[in-house]
DNA sequence: CGTGTAAGGAATTCTGACACG
DNA sequence: CGTGTAAGGAATTCTGACACG
């Protein structure tokens, strides 16, 4: 159904290209993943694949780090955002439920 | 100025991923490049990078090949399209020239 | 805590060529 | 003409660890 994952969300970019675009080192990018700030896909053989959206998030993370924010704090913000997303999702399913019940 | 190359046009995808998405073999993809049907970027070390737009074009090429169209013919169509683009571009620069002269 | 680096292995990509047709 | 494949080399990516602070 939701076959049309937009170009922005499709995880198809290797870490080398991400490095080049963001200016961040591979080490940093992998570290932010370890700290659960970013979630690349993996190919069967284990290479990381990022989306343009991931790249945007990496730039935001980099800014915060430069401002002295710790990865732990950054993660909290992400969780908060996701909670909002979840609420939206629940509202949607609520509406759908009502519509058909 | 035109920094905002859209996600669709940015050449950031490796040939392995293109293979996976299109279902075409590396051999085919490289062959279509040799026949000047597709124009990936190259990293400094020589690896090919494709855009989502390239992937779309590859699928179109694959369809035509299956229909028995030869690469030579497919290239003609591409040149024809580019000519139309050029005309559009000339019209644009014509308008701009007028506006400021 | 955040990041650099050397280490060794595994998987990827590249090119030019031989093959079939 | 379009495509598969084996060949050998070069560049990439991966992980776990040591280092500094």
Number of strands of chain A: 2
Q: Gyration radius of chain A, to the nearest Å? A: 16 Å
> Order of strands in the sheet with the most strands of chain A?
1-2
Largest protein-protein interface: A-B, 12 and 12 residues
Oligomer: homodimer
Largest sheet of chain A: 2 strands, antiparallel
Mean pLDDT of chain A: 90
Describe this structure in words.
The structure is a homodimer of 101-residue chains. The first copy, chain A, is built from four helices and two strands. Chain A is mostly helical. Chain A has a two-stranded antiparallel ribbon. In chain A, a hairpin with a 5-residue loop joins strand 1 (41-42) and strand 2. Chain A is globular. The first copy, chain A, starts with 14 loop residues before the first helix and ends with a helix. Chain A binds a DNA duplex (21 and 21 nucleotides) through helix 2.
What's this entry about, in short?
Helices cover 61% and strands 4% of the residues of chain A.
Key structural traits:
homodimer; 101 residues; mainly alpha; two-stranded antiparallel ribbon; 4 helices; DNA-binding
Q: What is the topological layout?
A:
Two copies of one chain form a homodimer.
Chain A: H1 15-22, H2 26-34, E1 41-42, E2 48-49, H3 52-66, H4 71-100
Chain A binds a DNA duplex (21 and 21 nucleotides) through helix 2.
């Amino acid at each position: 159904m939701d076959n049309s994952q937009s170009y922005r969300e499709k995880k198809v970019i290797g870490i080398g290209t991400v490095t080049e675009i963001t200016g961040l080192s591979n080490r940093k990018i992998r570290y932010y993943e370890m700290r659960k700030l970013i979630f690349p896909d993996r190919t069967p053989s284990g290479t990381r694949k990022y989306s343009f959206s991931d790249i945007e998030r990496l730039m935001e993370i980099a800014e915060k780090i430069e401002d002295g924010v710790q990865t732990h704090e950054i993660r909290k913000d992400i969780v908060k955002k996701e909670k909002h997303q979840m609420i939206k999702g629940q509202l949607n399913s609520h509406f759908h439920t009502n519509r058909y019940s």
